[in-house]
Amino acid sequence: MSWLRRRFFTGLLILLPILVTGWVFYKFFNSVDNILNPLVERYPFIYFPGLGFIGVLVIIFLTGVFGGNFIGRRVIGWLEVLVYRIPLISRMYTAVKQLSEAFLRSGKTVFKKAVMIQYPIAGTFAIGFVTSTSKFNTADGKGRDFVSVFLPTTPNPTSGYFLMVPEEETIELGCSVESALKMVISGGSFKPYFPGGEPVVPSGWIPETED
Fold this sequence. Notes:
The chain is of the alpha+beta class. Helix content is 46%, strand content 18%. The chain has 2 domains: 1-85, no CATH class; 113-185, SH3 type barrels, CATH 2.30.30. It contains 6 helices and 5 strands. It has a 5-stranded antiparallel beta sheet with strand order 4-3-2-1-5, covered by helices on one side. Strand 3 and strand 4 (160-166) form a beta hairpin. Helix 1 crosses helix 3. The longest helix is centred in the first third of the chain and has 32 residues, at 2-33. The two termini are 42 Å apart. 9% of the residues are buried.
């Protein structure tokens, strides 16, 4: 029985990721493929499996071509100006655009570097991504530097939390943003390469345990 149980769970571990991935792709493919249903209902002779999916790819490609030339950039710029004037929609558009640039655009990202911060309690650490820096005055009149940190969730890094953390309370990971994202998405199973050596946690940040 022990041998049968081990082999059963081994098979389950092999098949489960394949089946879940296939099911998600199937649902995604069907959803995208149904986009051209109004056109297919009017001209049923043009239908073939995958028509909608191919149509979406063509639209994305043509949009990229249009947005890559001078006229396209000007038109998109005018449309963005209009969107930014709409109170609620402008915030949503800005957030989605920044996340899209962070995950899809090579060579340019809103994430400046990957850091470790103490979250949710002292002595427990999470990986976040610095997006900007700010300076605030304290009660004694001295300025203190803060960093804006996006703290992604696992395994979906497009959602998360926004935190403002004192700069001295962050630990720079020293690896690329892409490697840190892979570590977050994989739930820690992927270990980044640290060119300058692994990050060092300052003494006193981790509570000492009693013998």
